[in-house]
Design brief:
alpha/beta, single chain, 33% helix, Rossmann fold
């Protein structure tokens, strides 16, 4: 579905653009994903809209069939990449699961700011981005996804999320589509 509108108080959520993750072998060049996410960050900040930067520091405690990393993560693994240019007014959410709302205070912080809609971008499409979008939808936020500002290491996971899951959660479009809608939000 095309982007038809943005609410007057829409927040941007950028998922896991951090030093330990951006070097993974993604299906799209990470530089382009970072560039489009940065364009969104600049646009939201220029308009005084809330920006949420999300990083992940570990794993949820549940058992899985896949083995967990046994080696220690590098000290700077969870640091946001410099390109996101974290600002004092940005909200930082540190998570230990795929979604940014699980076991964090993100919902309360956004609702306290009067946010009714979120735009989600980042990595990885089928895990962090999708989980955050699903949780936002379940918490009653309108959801918009910038599909050209996200990527995944798994092409099938990326395609499934973009083509089958995201249209059920909200509206999808490009970073430029979203930037173009920012000045007509609520109109």
């Amino acid at each position: 579905m095309a982007i038809t509108a943005l609410d007057p108080n829409t927040a941007l959520i950028v998922v896991d653009l951090q030093k330990g993750i951006v070097g993974y072998p993604f299906i799209h060049p990470i530089e382009a994903i970072v560039e489009r996410s940065r364009a969104l960050l600049d646009a939201f900040r220029q308009r005084g809209l809330p920006v949420v930067l999300v990083n992940v520091t570990g794993f949820a405690p549940g058992r899985t069939e896949r083995p967990r990393r046994s080696e220690a993560l590098p000290e700077d693994w969870a640091e946001l990449i410099p390109e996101v240019d974290q600002q004092p007014g940005d909200l930082l959410v540190t998570k230990r699961s795929w979604g940014a709302f699980a076991n964090t205070d993100l919902e309360q912080r956004l609702k306290a700011l009067g946010v009714t809609q979120v735009v989600v971008t980042g990595v990885a499409t089928g895990t962090g981005v999708e989980s955050t979008a699903r949780q936002a939808y379940e918490h009653g936020f309108n959801v918009t996804l910038s599909v050209d500002a996200m990527t995944d290491a798994n092409p099938e996971a990326h395609a499934y999320s973009v083509n089958h899951v995201f249209p059920r959660l909200g509206e999808t479009g490009t970073a430029q589509d979203i930037i173009n809608r920012l000045d007509t939000r609520g109109a």
